[in-house]
Design a protein that fits this description.
With 116 residues, this protein is α+β, with helices and mostly antiparallel strands. The chain is built from three helices and nine strands; from the N terminus they run ββαβαββββββα. The chain has one domain: D-amino Acid Aminotransferase, Chain A, domain 2 (Alpha-Beta Barrel), CATH 3.20.10.
């Protein structure tokens, strides 16, 4: 099993148009995780905080991790099972939902940095 590592990332799952973020029961609450949840809510993107199992991860259409050093990063594969991220060469195509969240996060980051 290949594992991509980040400094204590939190995983979120996407099922069609619904996003699940971990409840925080089994991971750190995390500033980046909370920021992404707030971005979803501020932009009318449905997101629910709940505990989920590895079986739920396997059944997700897409997934992404959030973390201080990585921001928002899509997950292509879990335990050898492809999520809906199609591999292309050495990388993979980002799902539109993840791409949108990355854009919102980057815009907020740039705004916050510019305001000092």
């Amino acid at each position: 099993m290949a594992l991509w590592r980040a400094a204590t990332p939190s995983i979120s799952l996407l099922f069609r148009t619904v996003r699940w973020s971990s409840s925080g029961d089994y991971c750190l609450g995390g500033i980046t995780r909370r920021t992404v949840i707030d971005l979803c809510r501020d932009n009318c993107i449905p997101i629910f905080e709940k505990s989920f199992s590895l079986t739920d991860v396997y059944g997700a259409d897409k997934a992404f991790v959030t973390g201080t050093f990585v921001g928002v990063v899509p997950v292509a594969e879990v335990d050898g099972r492809l999520l809906d991220e199609r591999k292309v060469g050495y990388g993979f195509r980002r799902a539109p939902a993840v791409k949108k969240l990355q854009g919102l996060f980057l815009k907020l980051f740039e705004t916050e940095c510019a305001s000092g």
